[in-house]
Design goal:
The complex is a heterodimer of chains A (299) and B (227).
Chain A lengths: L6 H15 L1 H37 L2 E6 L5 H13 L9 E3 L1 H12 L2 H4 L10 E5 L6 H9 L4 E5 L2 H43 L1 H9 L4 H41 L10 H28 L6
Antiparallel strand pairs in A: 1-3, 1-4, 2-3
Helix pairs in contact in A: 1-9, 2-7, 2-9, 7-9, 7-10, 9-10
Chain B lengths: L1 E9 L5 E10 L4 E5 L6 H8 L7 E6 L2 E2 L8 H5 L2 E4 L11 H11 L4 H14 L15 H14 L4 E5 L7 H16 L3 E6 L2 H7 L2 E6 L2 E6 L8
Parallel strand pairs in B: 3-8, 3-9, 6-7, 7-8
Antiparallel strand pairs in B: 1-2, 1-4, 4-5, 9-10
The chains are: A alpha+beta (299), B alpha/beta (227).
Chain lengths: 299, 227
């Protein structure tokens, strides 16, 4: 006789009943999950935004090398070949820009052609535009180009690129450490909540086992209790995260930071955030329960 | 069927609970297990229900060799047993019917099976009119009959009753023992642990006596001389 189909309703009913029978501990467990997910979510969103900025920067991963005026065309061609051979240089996008073109671009960008008409071409230098493949190695690539003979000067935005990388890496590292700690604390609180529930039903569990209950039959209501606590925490944390994100965006907007970068709108990522929160909450809840109930099954 | 072959049991704290126990209870038998406190009766019950494992020797219960039983098989072995405790151990929040329904739910019985089996067993133990009562609303004797019904509900091959009359007055004790005898007559093997000499002698069944962890008597017809 193994017809456990309708027992699902029993497991769910028992799981919910247990949550309310020790409401304060359940509340504490939900609060811990909310705190854990909120901190994890905040740092993850920071990392996601930094990553997004980095991607945008990577789309514009260009720098210019100005060529020594004394260099001949042959020497310029040789320099171009040397640059294309460097690691992390997108060889297909290495482009020579003569000083005449540079002047035309300058005038086009800064307007009023008549004002610059008398400007001699010699004011500008021949230059080579270079695209890098991996922005995290931007500085090494710039240094390698600088070291080449004929590279008179380099114009790059490596500091900005590096600061994006630093923010992303820092946020990821901090999020990892904090999430690790908070997951441990959450597991501990959940496990204690479930342990308390199991302890109050110790006698009942012993009788169930003596009547032939399998470990699964005893365990499921507790796993469902952990799952419900985890999901409740996840949903509360999701809405709080939404609010916090909107508040932070408003603060940034008022400070004028949006002129430098545009963060990802929450409505573009809410599905991912909800899925990650629910997954993490459910996992913490069920693993915590599983850890707690084990010793009560040894009857 | 229960078979204990040269069984020794020593607990982790060094207590030697059983010493070379050889015992056999065949299908359909009724046996009393008697002995003073600390003699090893409870250890034998724990070995039979797989709560403990022997230090040495073999324990076989209803076809399951408990020496090499897998953890997942233990519930299925226990389903061949019905256990009755001195303190009844009923779920106080569930009605008489609820206690029985829950025990059937444990083994995955269907609602139809419950509706057929529970009234039959309640009638067998004489509690048809108490099915909606909570345990605290009925007498000790009736609570023990509920415990017997719970032990019987999944139709086990054997019932193990651990001091089933220990909390009852003599009238109820006789009533419970008579009920167990009637259930045995229907084919269920019965092992009853008890202290009650008069009751044992009254029924004249097989008596297995244990003292200081050793089997000192195994005979039909009552308690015999004091052990």
């Amino acid at each position: 006789m193994k017809k456990h189909g309708f027992n699902l309703f029993y497991f769910i009913r028992e799981g919910f009943a247990s949550i309310f029978s020790h409401g304060l501990m359940s509340f504490a467990a939900v609060c811990m999950i909310v705190a854990c997910l909120l901190i994890m979510g905040s740092f993850s969103l920071l990392a996601v935004n930094a990553d997004n900025l980095l991607s945008e920067a990577e789309d514009d991963n260009e720098f210019l090398v100005f060529i020594d005026e004394t260099f001949t065309d042959d020497q310029i061609n040789a320099l171009g070949a040397q640059i294309m051979a460097l690691p992390n240089v997108d060889a297909a996008n290495v482009r020579f820009i003569p000083k005449e073109d540079a002047k035309a671009t300058y005038i086009e960008r800064y307007g009023d052609e008549s004002m610059y008409a008398s400007l001699p071409d010699e004011v500008f230098r021949d230059r080579i535009s270079i695209h890098v493949l991996d922005l995290s190695k931007f500085k090494e690539t710039v240094d390698a180009v600088k070291a080449l003979e004929g590279a008179a000067n380099v114009r790059d935005q490596s500091e900005l690129a590096m600061s994006f990388v630093a923010v992303r890496n820092g946020a990821t590292a901090l999020a990892t450490v904090l999430v690790g700690l908070l997951v441990c604390v959450s597991l501990f609180i959940i496990a204690n909540t479930i342990r308390l529930a199991a302890f109050t039903r110790k006698e009942e569990i012993a009788i169930m086992k003596m009547c032939g209950a399998t470990d699964g039959f005893v365990r499921w209501p507790f796993l469902i209790e952990g799952l419900v606590l985890g999901l409740t925490g996840a949903i509360v944390a999701f809405f709080l995260q939404w609010g916090v994100y909107i508040l932070v965006l408003q603060g940034l907007e008022e400070s004028g930071v949006f002129s430098i970068f545009v963060p990802i709108p929450f409505l573009e990522i809410w599905k991912m955030v909800l899925a990650v929160f629910c997954g993490a909450g459910a996992l913490i809840g069920m693993v915590g329960s599983g850890l707690a109930i084990g010793k009560f099954l040894q009857v | 069927m229960i078979r204990l072959i040269d069984v020794y049991k020593e607990y982790d704290n060094g207590t030697k609970a059983l010493n070379a126990i050889d015992m056999r209870i065949d299908d359909g038998e009724f046996a009393f297990l008697v002995g003073p406190s600390g003699s090893g009766k409870s250890t034998i019950i724990k070995l039979i229900t797989a709560e403990e494992s022997p230090t040495a020797g073999q324990v076989v219960v209803n076809g399951f060799n408990l020496n090499n039983i897998r953890h997942w098989q233990i519930p299925y072995m226990r389903r061949t047993l019905g256990v009755i405790f001195q303190d009844f151990r009923l779920n106080k929040k569930k009605t008489v019917w609820g206690n029985l329904e829950f025990t059937m739910r444990i083994i995955g019985a269907s609602r139809k099976e419950m509706r057929q089996r529970i009234p039959y067993v309640l009638d067998l133990v004489g509690l048809t009119d108490k099915s909606d009562a909570l345990p605290d609303e009925i007498s000790g004797g009736e609570q023990q009959r509920v415990a017997i019904a719970r032990a019987l509900i999944n139709n086990p091959q054997m019932i193990i009753a651990d001091e089933p009359t220990g909390n009852l007055d003599p009238t109820f004790s006789l009533e419970i023992m008579t009920l167990l005898e009637r259930i045995n007559a229907m084919g269920t093997t019965m092992l009853v642990v008890t202290h009650e000499k008069d009751l044992v002698n009254r029924f004249g069944k097989r008596v297995i006596a244990i003292k200081d962890g050793e089997l000192i008597r195994d005979a039909q017809g009552g308690y015999g001389r004091p052990v």
